[in-house]
Amino acid sequence: MSRAERDDLIFKALADSRRRAMLDLLKEAPRTTGDLCERFEGSLDRCTVMQHLKVLERAGLVIAVKEGRTRWNYLDVTPFQEIHERWISPYAREAVGLLSKLKRDVEDD
Predict the structure, then answer these.
(1) Average pLDDT of the chain, as a whole number
(2) Quick one: 63 and 20 in the same domain?
(3) What is the DSSP-derived secondary structure letter of residue 66?
(4) 3-state DSSP assignment of residue 71
(5) Residue numbers of the domain that contains 92
(6) Residue 56 CA to chain centroid, in angstroms?
(7) What's the whole-model pTM score?
């Protein structure tokens, strides 16, 4: 899979607010699939939670490990770091450079 295809999977996974909410929960601590289903009870059924987890797994944002009949879900921060290095950091450096230039220009006047 190419880097662009992986990035597409990550951005697709992050595009849904419910998946972002799942990632927020997993950021706090690993959780079982059952626990995630309970957290979203009333708004999402078990099948929908599983579908969202599958999207997050395909994107590499979640690692699922089976222990007996229990499925533990762990946040993998590596894709976030890769996205930061590829997309956020270069644009942030550019913005900081432009702001510094603007500040110098304003102060010189």
Answers:
(1) 92
(2) yes
(3) E
(4) strand
(5) 77-109
(6) 8
(7) 0.81
